[in-house]
UniProtKB/TrEMBL annotation:
Function, in words: Component of an histone acetyltransferase complex.
Species in which this protein is naturally found: Hypotaenidia okinawae
Protein name: Inhibitor of growth protein
Compartments where found: Nucleus
Ranges of biased composition (kind: Basic and acidic residues): 99-109, 230-243
Bilayer-spanning residue ranges: none
Gene Ontology CC terms: nucleus
Main location: nucleus
Keyword hit for Coiled coil: yes
Region (Disordered): 98-170, 230-249
Residues annotated as site: Histone H3K4me3 binding: 183, 194, 198, 206
MF (Gene Ontology): zinc ion binding
Family to which the UniProt record says this protein belongs: Belongs to the ING family.
Length: 249
């Protein structure tokens, strides 16, 4: 239930971010139109070259905004798919649990039947002892107190033993699907937000955000720590350089 309850908030947050990116994209397109109009009406070669460079930067910026919008939509789709997969797994576990509880209920019913059948001979023996008492003593009032006490004591013992058996019945363990595939460095099943390694030869393929130190999906290609290897410092430098270029814009 927790994974389903948090889904609307995650979708709402990504939808708000998507609207913000769409506003920025519309502003970038308007800037492109304005610069292009100035470029057509400009006759000075130097100024025309500057406008051309400005137009190129605006086009690159609009393309980056479009890529980020695609990433947000992809992240929303992956989030919904992960939640649906988790709900399907949990539903199968509950079905297996209910099927395992049926044999236990049947065993309890069968165990109660011999106890009820075993009480009848005792009542018969009690009535027989009462009849013998009448015949031997020739009186109507025979002392039935000892058999009653014996019967009450035996019934109390049976009730206590039955309650003890019910307490000792161990609960059925939560069924786990052994065929569920595992991913990531932690070798666990799929949950939460995940990212795929762009190396086609990667043996693991998918990783949890928290296990690889990510809070959102990065732009461009991404490689896992195992596939990164000695190229990690080079990739980090490229990432820092791209961040500085975006800030300067």
């Amino acid at each position: 239930l927790e994974c389903v309850e948090s889904l609307p908030l995650d979708i709402q947050r990504n939808a708000s971010l998507l609207r913000e990116m769409d506003t920025q994209c519309q502003e970038a397109l308007k800037e492109i139109d304005d610069v292009y109009e100035k470029y057509k009406s400009e006759n000075d070669p130097v100024q025309k070259k500057r406008l051309q460079q400005h137009l190129q930067r605006a086009l690159i910026n609009s393309q980056e905004l479009g890529d980020e919008k695609i990433q947000i939509v992809t992240q929303m789709l992956e989030m919904v798919e992960n939640r649906a997969r988790q709900m399907e797994t949990h539903s199968q576990c509950f079905q297996d649990l209910s099927e395992n509880e049926k044999p236990l209920e049947k065993a309890k019913i069968e165990s109660c039947q011999p106890e009820r059948s075993s009480r009848r001979p005792r009542r018969q023996r009690t009535s027989e002892s009462r009849d013998l008492c009448h015949i031997a003593n020739g009186i109507d009032d025979c002392d039935d107190q000892p058999p009653k006490e014996k019967r009450s004591k035996s019934s109390k013992k049976k009730k206590r033993s039955k309650a003890k058996q019910e307490r000792e019945v161990s609960p059925v363990e939560f069924a786990i699907d052994p065929n569920e595939p595992t991913y990531c460095l932690c070798n666990q099943v799929s949950y939460g937000e995940m990212i795929g390694c762009d190396n086609e030869q990667c043996p693991i393929e998918w990783f949890h955000f928290s296990c690889v130190g990510l809070t959102y999906k990065p732009k461009g290609k991404w490689y896992c720590p195992k596939c990164r290897g000695d190229n990690e410092k080079t990739m980090d430098k490229c990432t820092d350089k791209s961040k500085k270029d975006r800030r300067s814009r």
